[in-house]
Amino acid sequence: MPINNISRDRLSEEENFHDAWAHTQNVSDIDIHLMNESCTTPEMRFIHKTFSDVKGKRLLDLGCGLGEASVYFALRGAQVTAVDISQGMLDATKALAKRYGVEVKVCKLSAESLTLANDQWFDLIYAGNLFHHVDIESTLQKIAPNLCPGGSLISWDPVAYNPLINVYRKLAMGVRTADEHPLTLKDIETFKKYFSEVECHWFWLTTLVIFVIFALVQRRDPNKVRYWKKVIEEGQRWKWFYQPLERLDGILLKIFPFLKVYCWNVVIIARKPKQISELPVGGKDEHGT
Fold first, then answer.
1. How many other C-beta atoms are found inside a 10 Å radius of the C-beta of residue 272?
2. 102 lies in which domain range?
């Protein structure tokens, strides 16, 4: 899909926003073990448990941000290529990799205009909090051909349906970009157009009470404090409260699976990329979507 002037403006806004964010961060303050292992980062704990052996694997971190996941994967032995639209984020990733004594290759590109050689294959493509920032169709078109036949695309993103989180989104516009679009069920179906196997795992239902406490009890300004990051940084403090609710979420989602759409985040694992001959013409299915 060609990038028109409107999308170029959007990409420029995304780049400027994330450059500005990167410049406020002190790499020496980033604890990558905390960001990947905290009890309040269930998505990352699940991903690292599911993909426990990454040693020697070629891994593409798409939309790497500050590099917390890139460096963590590299520490576990993966050969990591980190891609981001923001040079500021890539500079932070390089600094973080140096601090932890690992090598991470960085590349400045947007996911939607990703240009990789046809023979550049990855065993794993990781996209954390990326797809709600990009055109999902265009991005999947770009990355699916560069995933090994036996490889996996691992992503996690916010979901569109929880009314509590939607209120937070409206209040927290100072720490979000205007074009963000939390995933819908239709968005998730798009993954099935490019991969033969797609599985979803849902996180944060009753545990979202912590956000209510942030807002109504502790009076934290959602435009000054990134709730999603603060809850990870304070994971040990919230452990006593979070863990029982996480167990409750597991029970509720098992008994009432329809509640899954009201979770905050979804982890998507996609395998078996379809061959070009299998894809609908122009990337559209028989319904034209």
1. 15
2. 5-159+180-203+263-274
- Pairing mode, strands 147-158 and 122-128: parallel
Please tell me the pTM assigned to this model: 0.90
Strands (E), the chain: 58-62, 79-84, 104-108, 122-128, 147-158, 195-203, 265-273
Q: For the segment 235-258, what is each residue's pLDDT rounded down to a tens digit?
A: 999 999 999 999 999 999 999 999
* pLDDT tens-digit series, residues 22-58: 898 999 999 999 999 999 999 999 999 999 999 999 9
User: Is residue 210 included in any domain, yes or no?
Assistant: no
Instruction: Select from 235, 237, 226, 152 the least CA-distant residue to 195.
Output: 152
Q: What count of residues does the chain have?
A: 289
Q: CA-CA distance, 99 to 24, in Å (whole number)? A: 18
- What's CA 169's distance to the chain center, in Å? 17
Tell me which DSSP letter residue 273 carries: E
For residue 269, tell me if it sits in a domain: yes
What whole-number distance in Å separates Cα of residue 18 and Cα of residue 211? 23
In the block, tokens 């971190």 appear at 61
Interatomic CA distance for residues 125 and 255, integer angstroms: 32
